[in-house]
Amino acid sequence: MKICVMAGDGIGPEIVEQALRVLKAPALGLQASFTEAAVGGAGYRAEGHPLPVSSLKAARDADAILFGAVGDFSLDTLPRELRPEQAILGLRKELNLFANFRPAIVYPELVDASSLKPEVVAGLDILIIRELTGDIYFGQPRGIHVRSDGVREGFDTMRYSVPEIERVAHVAFQAAQKRNRRLCSVDKANVLDTMQLWREVVIAVGQQYPDVELSHLYVDNAAMQLLKNPKQFDVMVTGNMFGDILSDEASMLTGSIGMLPSASLNENNFGLYEPIHGSAPDIAGKNIANPLATILSAAMMLRYSFGNADAADKIEAAVKRVLANGVRTGDIATAGAPVVGTREMGDAVLAALH
Ligand code: NAD
Fold first, then answer.
1. Domain segments of the chain as ranges
2. pLDDT-derived band of residue 289, with 50, 70 and 90 as boundaries?
3. Residue 261 CB less than 6 A away from ligand 1
4. What's the pLDDT score for residue 91?
5. Active site includes 248?
6. How many angstroms separate the alpha carbon of residue 278 from the centre of ligand 1?
7. pLDDT of 147-204, one tens digit each?
8. Cβ of 86 below 6 Å from ligand 1
9. How far is the CA of 279 from the centre of ligand 1 (A)?
10. What CA–CA distance (Å, rounded) separates 135 from 282?
11. Closest Cα to atom 40, ligand 1: which residue?
12. 1-98+266-354 and 102-260 share one CATH topology?
């Protein structure tokens, strides 16, 4: 297993360090090599670019990427193409990471962290699959111009081709097969032609997966249902823009940004694995960030890129044990309760790994 490690900015290095300790734990017995590569503000400072050529090469030479976070407010005045966040966009594009997996799980011990009633979210375990390389975020033409009547106007183009929809639909049906065999496709087929095509293609692909129950929701209703009764869902699949919004909404059902991992995969199961949160500059360098989202991202890496469900299960079980034992970083602790630091949370996961 060749793993490219891109710690990035802010809390990135602290949380990635804990995930690496877990991946190297004798209890897992993994044979892995690790190559570090600078990205984001760290890449800009080292080589003048958020995604230096050498880092992209290191990513291409690896089997998977463990990514921390990028973002550095002190570099926000740079031109857009040199800002830290371009690293993640560049990696998605260059490595064709078209399928974004975002699980949203509510651990019983953290049920009170949600802003929804415990009975609505207790036991929640859903997976949102967002298409990541197409849609209105990439469609041409786009721009801001002055119309012939002198009025300034902005425009973007929503576009999806049949092959783009097919490949993410296959990924979603196959993910549903490994879970509870229910897939909800989210679109806006009632208003948008692109989304009408989306629905047609998802239905056609679904013919190949008769064991998966397929349903459809318009995105506005999906946003509502996620708050009303999120446990009705198993796997959801949607386009880039709707997925961007719905996956953030779903993650907040759990109430804990420091707990949620993600994976972005291409057709060969090459993946970039990262916590859903950013570089949290407000808490960087203080040993208070929660490393569990990154540790759980490492577990996803073992499951999806390396087919090692056994090791992934062990890590996830260790995290559950740690939570059951009441170990908490500040972001998931109830007010006034004792908290541990980033490194101590790593220690606790290592101790619970067997
Ligand atoms: P953020 O996710 O970094 O932080 C939001 C809040 O959550 C902050 O209060 C932070 O302290 C807290 N938080 C985040 N992760 C935590 C953790 N592991 N443990 C405890 N608390 C945690 O979002 P932001 O503040 O909007 O953005 C900061 C920077 O991160 C920006 O430059 C942004 O562009 C970047 N960003 C990067 C990614 C990425 O690398 N994929 C994603 C989102 C934001």
1. 1-98+266-354, 102-260
2. very high
3. no
4. 96
5. yes
6. 3
7. 999 999 999 999 999 999 999 999 999 999 989 999 999 999 999 999 999 999 999 9
8. no
9. 5
10. 33
11. 69
12. yes
Rounded distance between C-alpha atoms, residue 30 and residue 276, angstroms: 25
Nearest ligand 1 atom, CA 294: 18
Distance CA 175, CA 89 (A): 24
Residue 149 is among the residues annotated as catalytic for this protein: no
Q: Where are the beta strands (DSSP E) in the chain?
A: 2-8, 33-36, 64-69, 99-105, 125-131, 143-146, 152-155, 182-187, 213-218, 235-238, 261-265, 271-275
Judge whether residue 256 has pLDDT over 90. Answer: no
| Topology, domain 1-98+266-354 | Isopropylmalate Dehydrogenase (3.40.718)
Residue 11 near residue 68, CB atoms below 8 Å: yes
| pLDDT over 70 percentage in the chain | 100
Whether residue 336 is predicted with pLDDT greater than 90 in this model: the reply is no
Predicted confidence at residue 251, as pLDDT, reads 85
Tell me, what's the pLDDT at 113?
Answer: 82
Q: What is the CATH number of domain 102-260?
A: 3.40.718.10
Quick check: is 156 catalytic? no
For the question of residue 220 being annotated catalytic, the response is yes
Choosing from 82, 256, 257 the residue with most ligand 1 atoms within 8 A of its CB, the one to mutate for a pocket test is 257
CB of 283 shorter than 6 A to ligand 1: yes
